[in-house]
Specification:
The chain has 344 residues and is mostly helical. It has 8 helices and 2 strands; from the N terminus they run E-E-H-H-H-H-H-H-H-H. The protein has a two-stranded antiparallel ribbon. The radius of gyration is 23 Å and the shape is globular.
Length: 344
C-alpha cells in the first residue's frame, strides 16, 4: 500500500480479520511497514483499548509524529502556565495562609488537566518508539528485565481486560475535561459578576464584599490593564484550559463516547462531591473556601444558601459531562464521514 501515514495500529490484526477482509464495512489502517491492518466494524470496543485510543488522533492528517509534537507543545504550555500561575498565587497577598491554594477549585481543575496531558504525552511518545507490546523475557539478565519493566510502566497498556482499570482511566479522561469546563463556566457566570473574578465586575444592584475573593483586583483597572502575570494567569487558568479541552477532544485522541453513561454520570457527581469535601477540609485548615459561595460568612450566615450552592455545583457536573459527550459524538460523526469519503 503506497499511501502510508506513519500511523501505528491500535492493535495487531485479530486472527479472524483475514476471514472477514472482504466485508465492505471493515476499516483499513495502513502501518509503517505498508501492511494493512483490518478492523472489522463489528469488532468489540474492548479489543481497541482506551489507552491506545488516547495515543491516536482520529484525523489521518495528524500522524503519530505530528500528534506527539502537538502534545509536547500543549504539555509544555500547561507546564509554563502552572509555573507562572503558581508564582502569581503565591505572591498574591491574602489574609489566609498560602496553603489555601491546593484547595481552590481552579487549582484542582487545572492540575487534573495538566496531569492528564503529561500522562498521554509520555504514552504517545512511548507508543511511537515502541509500537509493539513490551514483553519481559524471563531468560534475560536483571538489567534487561528492569529496562523492560520501566518501559512497560511508561507505556500504554495494549489490553483492556480489566474493566475497573478501563473505567478508572475513562473517568480520569472525563474529569480532566469536565472540571475545566465547570471552572470556566463558574468563573464567567458566577465569580466575575459577583466581584470575585479578579477585575471590576459589571454594575449590579448588589455585590458581595471583596473578602475571601478568588483573585483580588484594583477597581480602577480592567483585566488587560492589570499586571501582565495576573492577566496571563486569569486568562489561561479560567479560559484557555477549556480551549485546550476542545482541541484534545476534537483532534488529539480517538477515545469513543463514555460507557456506561450512567456510571460516568454517577462518577462525575461523586468527584464533584469529593471536591466539596476537599474544600471543606481546606476551610477548616486555612479558613479559606475554595469557592466563595461555599463560605457561610460571605453568604450572610445562611446555611440553606450554602447547601443550595453545593447542590447546584454537583448538579452542573452532569450537564458538563453531557456537553463533553456531545463533543465526542460530533467528532466521531465527522471522522466517520471523512473515512467513508476517503474509502470511495
Amino acid at each position: 500500500m503506497a499511501d502510508t501515514n506513519d500511523r501505528t495500529p491500535l492493535l495487531p490484526p485479530p486472527a479472524h480479520a483475514q476471514s472477514q477482509s472482504g466485508q465492505s464495512d471493515s476499516h483499513v489502517y495502513p502501518t509503517h511497514d505498508d501492511t494493512a491492518v483490518i478492523f472489522p466494524s463489528n469488532w468489540s470496543d474492548l479489543q481497541q483499548p482506551i489507552y491506545l485510543r488516547a495515543c491516536h488522533s482520529p484525523w489521518r492528517i495528524i500522524n503519530q509524529p505530528v500528534l506527539l509534537f502537538l502534545r509536547l507543545i500543549l504539555a509544555g504550555y500547561l507546564s509554563a502556565v502552572f509555573g507562572v500561575s503558581l508564582k502569581y498565587k503565591l505572591e498574591n497577598e491574602d489574609e489566609h495562609t498560602r496553603w489555601r491554594i491546593p484547595f481552590q477549585f481552579s487549582t484542582v481543575s487545572f492540575c487534573t488537566q495538566w496531569a492528564f496531558h503529561l500522562q498521554v504525552t509520555v504514552w504517545t511518545a512511548m507508543h511511537l518508539l515502541f509500537p509493539k507490546a513490551i514483553e519481559v523475557n524471563p531468560r534475560d539478565c536483571h538489567g534487561h528485565k528492569l529496562r523492560a519493566y520501566i518501559l512497560r510502566f511508561f507505556s500504554p497498556s495494549n489490553k483492556a481486560s480489566c474493566p475497573i482499570r478501563r473505567y478508572g482511566f475513562s473517568m480520569f479522561y472525563t474529569m480532566a475535561h469536565v472540571f475545566p469546563f465547570m471552572n470556566t463556566l463558574i468563573y464567567w457566570a458566577v465569580l466575575v459578576p459577583s466581584g470575585h473574578g479578579g477585575f471590576p465586575p459589571p454594575s449590579f444592584p448588589h455585590q458581595h464584599p471583596p473578602g475571601n475573593a478568588t483573585v483580588t483586583y484594583d477597581p480602577d483597572k480592567g483585566l488587560f490593564e492589570e499586571d501582565p502575570i495576573k492577566a496571563f494567569s486569569i486568562i489561561n487558568v479560567w479560559t484557555i484550559t477549556t480551549v485546550i479541552g476542545f482541541i484534545e477532544i476534537g483532534f488529539l485522541n480517538s477515545i469513543r463516547r463514555q460507557t456506561p453513561v450512567t456510571g460516568h454520570i454517577i462518577g462525575v457527581m461523586f468527584c464533584s462531591g469529593a471536591y466539596l469535601a476537599w474544600a471543606g477540609i481546606g476551610k477548616l485548615l486555612t479558613g479559606h473556601s475554595g469557592l466563595f459561595f461555599l463560605d457561610p460568612d460571605l453568604m450572610n450566615d445562611m446555611p440553606e444558601a450554602v447547601i443550595a450552592a453545593c447542590l447546584a455545583f454537583i448538579g452542573v457536573s452532569p450537564g458538563m459531562f453531557s456537553y463533553m459527550y456531545g463533543l465526542v459524538a460530533m467528532r466521531e460523526t465527522m471522522t466517520a464521514a471523512t473515512r467513508h469519503d476517503s474509502s470511495r
